[in-house]
Amino acid sequence: MNYKKISKQALGFFPTPIVELSNLSKVLGGPKIWMKRDDNTGLALGGNKTRKLEYILGDALACGADTIITAGAAQSNHCRQTAAAAASLQLECHLVLGGEKPDIVNGNLMLDMLFGCHIHWAGVNRKGDDIPQIMEQLKQSGKKPYVVPYGGSNELGALAFVEALKELEIQFQAIDEPVTHIVFASSSGGTQAGLMLGKKMLGASYQIVGINIDKGEIANVSFDQHILSLANSTAKFMGVKHAFSKQDLILNSDYVGEGYGVFGDLEHEAISLTAQTEGILLDPVYTGRAMGGLFDMIRSGKINKKDSVLFWHTGGVPALFAYPNIVTASKC
Ligand SMILES: *Cc1c(COP(=O)(O)O)cnc(C)c1O
């Protein structure tokens, strides 16, 4: 694949807005907090996967694919956005979802079904181990399937976040507000690898701080290694001569709690306080956890009043409707 010949397929509305969260900042007694609203990318309730899919599905179309296949958890935002994008492009869509078919269909899963995709329940294999076998069956039935990687995190997905950082840089210039930290939820690594590479290419000085939301590994490599090798292969792909090493990576794993998707006090406080101070929704799996991590870094002084933070809202809001206990756990 040649970087210069990439065919991008428009799927969302860009640039997404940036907003200042002054009420939240006041309540926390903390630094200025900005938010990049990728929950408003416009594709089926939004999220960071829209950016990645513009490049990945652009490639799928250029390859002549007629069928898309990807994997994720039952409440995967990536799968929901892929299903919506496939519908808009009139491509057949197969989702390989972890677990068993639940009794109650809600949140992202309900939307997957609304978009008319085919769902394969994969038990413990929520990261796509069953894809090759389903690919084979699709090929035998005469289809031209194209695999969108787990979380949309390959070089094309990471490239989308190099471009996203350029988009943000233009917005920062317009408001003339230097930020010291960019904080976001990190899970399959494409967002972080792209932001790291974008920072390098722009010569920026802010810290790119990923909040790890998942205890697991990806394809048997540690998450740190996975992000670094994706940042390096994306640099190579884009013709940038730079080798990332461990010191370039800030991945905070202090907030994984009981593991992927297990809702706790940290997420509860972050979601309710952001809702009640700013009228903005976070999600229970990713942005709620990352915002909870940001609260803790502010309270513990790792990020202080003189800093200025941009929280990258990566979406995920439909999963709120799969966690009704968020409200029953609330004190108000
Ligand atoms: C996928 C996802 C992330 C993580 O992005 P990666 O590029 O996979 O690390 C964060 N937040 C939400 C809401 C997501 O759906």
Oligomer: single chain
Query: How do the strands of the widest beta sheet line up side by side?
Result: 1-2-10-7-8-9
Instruction: Please give the share of residues in helix.
Output: 25-40%
Bound molecules: pyridoxal-5'-phosphate
**Share of β-strand residues:** 5-15%
Number of helices: 11
> Any idea what the shape is?
globular
Rg from C-alpha positions? Answer: 19 Å
Task: Provide mean pLDDT, rounded.
Answer: 94
Secondary structure layout plus pairing:
Blueprint (H helix, E strand, L loop, with lengths): L17 E3 L1 H7 L3 E6 L11 H14 L4 E6 L4 H13 L2 E6 L9 H8 L3 E4 L9 H10 L4 E3 L7 H21 L5 E6 L3 H13 L4 E6 L10 H15 L12 E3 L12 H14 L8 H13 L8 E6 L11 H4 L4
Parallel strand pairs: 2-10, 3-4, 3-6, 4-5, 7-8, 7-10, 8-9
Antiparallel strand pairs: 1-2
Pyridoxal-5'-phosphate binds next to helix 3, strand 7 and helix 7.
Structure, explained:
- The protein has 332 residues and is of the alpha/beta class.
- The protein folds into 2 domains: 3-47 and 154-326, Rossmann fold; 49-152, Rossmann fold (3-Layer(aba) Sandwich).
- Helix content is 40%, strand content 15%.
- The chain has helices at 22-28, 49-62, 77-89, 107-114, 131-140, 155-175, 190-202, 223-237, 265-278, 287-299, 325-328; strands at residues 18-20, 32-37, 67-72, 92-97, 118-121, 145-147, 181-186, 207-212, 250-252, 308-313.
- It has a 6-stranded mixed β-sheet with strand order 1-2-10-7-8-9, with helices on both faces. Strands 5-4-3-6 form a 4-stranded parallel β-sheet, with helices on both faces.
- α4 links the parallel β4 and β5 (118-121).
- α1 packs across α9, α2 (49-62) crosses α6 and α6 packs across α8 (223-237).
- The protein is globular, with a radius of gyration of 19 Å.
- The model has no long low-confidence stretch (mean pLDDT 94).
- The structure holds pyridoxal-5'-phosphate (PLP).
- The site of pyridoxal-5'-phosphate has 21 residues, from α3, β7 and α7.
